[in-house]
Design brief:
5 helices
């Protein structure tokens, strides 16, 4: 029994490297291409948004290509993989929560789940990318 387990180890170890996974390789693509495709929802303000974009640029070594627009349009582009990140005012209980990952409030506050606040949104399942974003949000 012990011998069989030892034989399995070389096959089990490579799978450890893939956690957390990025099925669409967002973080790798951003770092390798040097381009970060960000959508900013109209009316999101500039100060905290610009600060957060700068933080993500510094963390990834990529330059942001900004596209501004309406939330629904940008979130659809995010879901389709045409954007890497969307920044805008979203409630934690947004209907988009089923389709995209939403960060904590970018200012570090903890508002009611139904109150829209400035957040970052990323494609669901892109866990390495999501971890990079989550680590960049101000901690209270």
């Amino acid at each position: 029994m012990r011998f069989a387990f030892l034989l399995m180890i070389p096959f089990l170890l490579p799978s450890c490297d893939a956690v957390p996974a990025d099925p669409e390789h967002t973080l790798m693509r951003v770092k390798e291409s040097g381009q970060l495709r960000i959508g900013i929802v109209e009316g999101s303000g500039s100060g905290p948004t610009e600060d957060f974009v700068k933080t993500i640029e510094d963390k990834t070594g990529a330059s942001a290509a900004i596209r501004r627009g309406e939330a629904e349009h940008l979130l659809k582009k995010l879901e389709d993989g045409e954007l890497d990140l969307v920044i805008g005012s979203f409630a934690q209980k947004s209907p988009w929560k089923r389709h995209v990952w939403l960060s904590k409030a970018l200012d570090g506050s903890e508002p009611a789940a139904t109150r829209p606040v400035l957040r970052a949104a990323a494609r669901n399942g892109e866990n390495r990318w999501i971890m990079t974003i989550a680590e960049s949000v101000i901690q209270p």
